[in-house]
Amino acid sequence: MTAQLSPIDKAKYVAARRAVEFVEDGMRVGLGTGSTAAWMVRCLGELIRDEGMKITGVATSTRTAKLAAEVGIPVKTLDEVRWLDLTIDGADEYDPNLNLIKGGGGALLQEKIVATASDQMIVIADLSKQVDTLGAYPLPVEVIPFGWQTTKALIEEMLSNLDVMGRNSSLRLNGTDPFRTDEGNFILDLHLRRIGNPTQLSLVLNQIPGVVENGLFLDICDVLVIGNADGTVEVRDINNGTVEHERIDINDTENLFVETGE
Ligand code: 5RP
């Protein structure tokens, strides 16, 4: 079945397959959002179905919760579980220190809460997400709808004092309407091109009234699994300082899936 996958989906799939090897019986697992994370959710469903693995999932979005239910993962809320053993999620960008931009799918708030409530965060990605310096991908910032244009103006004014290359922002749309997050908020995408000091930017952004959270995930990711279309993966562990290369067998996925729905 994986023979029908595009090269990019193969890369995402093998990253997901390798990442679920970190999951052990009985674990409470944060389930990320996005097309790469959707592969991971389906791989976990396969482990439950075929190997009888018992896990509890905490979803980071309504669409991940729906997919998890479809593939047979028991899902609880974070309030029911309180703390997680690990979270596996995708990313829009990662830098050499495994700092991330997330929120391309609009789920950054729940994703950050869930990842922060986890002993370990494992990020799954392909090489297209790799950058030397964060910022080429527009930085998503979740803002409350009330007074969003004032919040946008305040953000743009604040950016003029920070080490970034671009200062424009745009309201994310869903058709002609504003995109709404699961919490009913809006997303502003900041077109910064280069973020010189992500820590400073994150702190300053979150001090602006109206900003709920930003998509910089700094010092949160422990392990990065990079998948390649040829079936190889690279596993970078920031805590151990190790980098390992492996090959994933992708021929044993007869009962798996074609469409990720993402
Ligand atoms: C959703 C996210 C995703 O993890 C990120 O957008 C990557 O998505 P994909 O795996 O589809 O490229 O942060 O809010």
Task: Reconstruct the topology from this structure.
Elements (H helix, E strand, L loop, with lengths): L6 H13 L8 E4 L3 H17 L4 E4 L2 H9 L7 H4 L2 E6 L3 E2 L5 E2 L6 H9 L1 E9 L12 E5 L4 H12 L8 E4 L1 E2 L2 E2 L7 E6 L6 H8 L5 E4 L1 E2 L5 E5 L4 E6 L4 E6 L15
Parallel strand pairs: 1-2, 1-3, 3-6, 6-14
Antiparallel strand pairs: 4-5, 5-13, 7-11, 7-12, 8-11, 9-10, 14-15, 15-16
Helix pairs in contact: 1-2
Structure, described:
With 262 residues, the chain is of the alpha/beta class. The protein folds into two domains: 168 residues, Rossmann fold, CATH 3.40.50.1360; 77 residues, Alpha-Beta Plaits, CATH 3.30.70.260. It has seven helices and 16 strands. The protein has a seven-stranded mixed sheet. It starts with 6 loop residues before the first helix and ends in a 15-residue tail after the last strand. Bound molecules: ribulose-5-phosphate (5RP). Ribulose-5-phosphate binds next to helix 2 and helix 5. Homodimer. It comes from Roseicyclus persicicus. GO terms for molecular function: ribose-5-phosphate isomerase activity.
